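Narrative of accomplishments. A recurring question from our advisory board has been how the design workflow behaves on a single, concrete structure rather than in aggregate. To address it, we present the structure tokens for one chain from the evaluation set, followed by the sequence designed for it. No filtering or post-editing was applied between the two.
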């Protein structure tokens, strides 16, 4: 069993978990913003700070399935990885077109998309 966290760490982890969960909800609504990494971040914060909130997240109708899948396998299905890359390409294409004439924003977008693609490629996959 882990020793109890100092009060400030407990509240910092709870705050970070809830902010990550908010970003996950925004990721469901906004194209180009992934939700799964934020769900995983929220879960990792809650597992340390509040087993009750972690259990709630595991049982949640929307957030629970990808989280349980991750905790069981520690990998992503290959289909999900291909979907993520494809959606990132479509989002990047549309965003680059909308940001015509703003090369510095296009550069930031490309760096962000390349970073996201690299992170996804580093996650183990399964059939």
């Amino acid at each position: 069993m882990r020793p109890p966290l100092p009060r400030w760490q407990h509240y910092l982890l709870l705050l970070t978990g809830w902010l990550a969960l908010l970003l996950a909800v925004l990721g469901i609504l906004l194209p180009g913003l992934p939700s799964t990494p934020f769900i995983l971040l929220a879960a990792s914060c809650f597992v340390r700070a509040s087993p009750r909130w972690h259990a709630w997240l595991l049982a949640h109708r929307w957030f629970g399935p990808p989280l349980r899948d991750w905790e069981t396998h520690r990998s992503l299905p290959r289909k999900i990885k291909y979907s993520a890359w494809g959606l990132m390409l479509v989002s990047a294409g549309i965003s680059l077109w909308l940001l015509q004439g703003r090369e510095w924003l296009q550069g930031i977008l490309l760096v962000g998309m390349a970073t996201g693609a690299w992170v996804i490629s580093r996650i183990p996959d399964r059939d």
